[in-house]
Amino acid sequence: MESALDHQTARALLEWQFELGVTDALGDVPVNRYDLPGAAPWQQKRNAAKPAAAAMPMAAPEEDPVAVAGAAAKQAGSLEALRAALSAFEHCELKKGARNLVFCDGVAGARVMIIGEAPGRDEDREGRPFVGRAGQLLDRMLAAVDLSRETSVYITNVLPWRPPQNRDPKPDEIAMMRPFLQRHVELAAPDLIIAMGNISCDAVLGRRGITRLRGNWGTAFGKPVLPMFHPAYLLRQPLAKREAWADLLSLQARLKGNT
Ligand code: URA
Asked: Is the CB of 120 under 6 A from ligand 1?
């Protein structure tokens, strides 16, 4: 674009800026004139009064935690590498309050992958998912359709660290950990996924409303997904076990290739 300034005006503007103290036309980084050797005494005095501010480094541009998680997860070429990548991930505040990383249990490569919500107190202590009361009920449910974590099921959670006081995970925490979850599914390579409870349905399918979703097969990460009531909910609402049983039968039929 051509300048609208005539030569005289441009020169006057430059001289005015020069009088104000401008010495360079352009710089890529800010220069702290108070720190330069030979600064005027009044500048040095002012500088001495604010040593911390003068020494303050420039803040690094904020990293996008979801992008960092995505890059770290993508680089992991095995389940062990993914576990290590999660251990090294420092962007999730939950990690600071957790005793252990809760990564997985069961058989890697099993046809069924269960995705729960987040570790509770027992899981946090042991570093394994679903070891508390809800986990014991989960084991009984699996046994009812001839499945077990020892032989035929792989288990993980949306979040690998326990939220304080078992509060619900926040949307930004779910979004941050989802790239790891996606990679976890890719590396574990199950035939199908069970999404246990609302948080899991949210992270996996992008939908909530477990009462409507349960029993209806969906698709996520390129796999069939069966939403089911969370076993912790079944402990509080034993009548809902009827629906859970119907879902287990649906799972069994799918595994036998009957649906
Ligand atoms: N609830 C979950 O969703 N996951 C666990 O590991 C334990 C309880």
From this structure: yes
Distance 235 CA to ligand 1 centre (A): 13
**CATH architecture assigned to 65-255:** 3-Layer(aba) Sandwich (3.40)
> Which is the closest atom of ligand 1 to the Cα of 155?
6
All structural domains of the chain with their residue ranges: 65-255
The residue type of 160 is P
Helix, strand, coil fractions of the chain, as percent rounded to 5: 50, 10, 40
Return the residue whose CA atom lies nearest to atom 7 of ligand 1: 130
Stated as kind and residue range, the H or E segment containing 223 is strand 223-228
- Tell me how crowded residue 112 is: count the other CB atoms within 10 A of its CB: 23
CA of 31 to the centre of ligand 1 (A): 53
> pLDDT tens across 114-162, in order?
999 999 999 999 999 999 999 999 999 999 999 999 999 999 999 999 9
- Residue-wise pLDDT for 155-208, tens only, equals 999 999 999 999 999 999 999 999 999 999 999 999 999 999 999 999 999 999
The alpha carbon of 100 and the centre of ligand 1 are apart by a number of angstroms equal to 14
Question: In ligand 1, which atom is closest to the CA atom of 200?
Answer: 3
65 CB near ligand 1 (under 6 Å): no
Cβ atoms of 223 and 190 within 8 Å: the answer is yes
What's the whole-model pTM score?
A: 0.77
CB 130 less than 6 A from any atom of ligand 1:
yes
Give the Cα separation of 140 and 136 in Å (integer).
Answer: 6
